[in-house]
Amino acid sequence: KGNGMIGNIYSMGLALQALEATRKFYAPRKWDCAQAFSVVSAHDHQQPMAIAQMLPALVGRSYLDVAGLDCAATKDMSPHQQLPLSPMLGTHGVPRAPIQVHYSITNTLQGKHFHYSTSVTVPSGSTLLQVLEVAQEENPQTFSFQTEQTSWGTYVTSIHGLAASTEDRTYWQFLSAGDALDEGVGTYKPHAGEHIQAVFSTY
């Protein structure tokens, strides 16, 4: 993509590792690694799997380098010196201004087609998963949904009783302004007035 993204934020880690490891085979065409790394550095990675795949590219080492690490050099460091503090720490208990998020679900792929929309109010900084939960609480008959936990976080498996299927190659795709979200429902934080669409799709 023109902004430096390779695929999405979840595939970036493996893509960067592959490109760095094989850069000498990509002559004469060059890829803008600085732009790609700036995208990675600016993103607030929260999923352990995404972080694990991103770190080798960011620090210039593969997992094979672990065998040669000098643990004695870091044993005297306190925990707060080793890792940056999360920007979310210290905000607990502080009231957050409410925002309104528009949410719609659409199926024109299987069975009886449907399209429903609603607007929900959540505290600013809420995740998309919290938006879905509020919509379900306010109208469970229409906006009910089911999830499962994966190594990449929460995955929405069913909305309005319509379940995704690997056999049918279907899934619930989440979009904003027509573009697919580059984060999962458990980490993506909608902004005020944003319209989130859940569209039953095929791959």
From TrEMBL:
One of its GO terms (biological process) is cobalamin transport. InterPro entries: Cbl-bd_prot (IPR002157), Cobalamin_Transport (IPR051588), Transcobalamin-like_C (IPR027954). Residues 125-197 form the Transcobalamin-like C-terminal domain. One of its GO terms (molecular function) is cobalamin binding. Transmembrane segments: none annotated. Cyanocob(III)alamin binds at residues 8, 53, 155-156, 181, 203. It comes from the Eukaryota. GO terms for cellular component: extracellular space. Pfam families: Cobalamin_bind (PF01122), DUF4430 (PF14478). Its main location: secreted. Keywords: Cobalt, Cobalt transport, Ion transport, Secreted, Signal, Transport. The keyword Transcription does not apply. It is found in: Secreted. Belongs to the eukaryotic cobalamin transport proteins family. This is IF factor. It comes from Eulacestoma nigropectus. The gene is Gif.
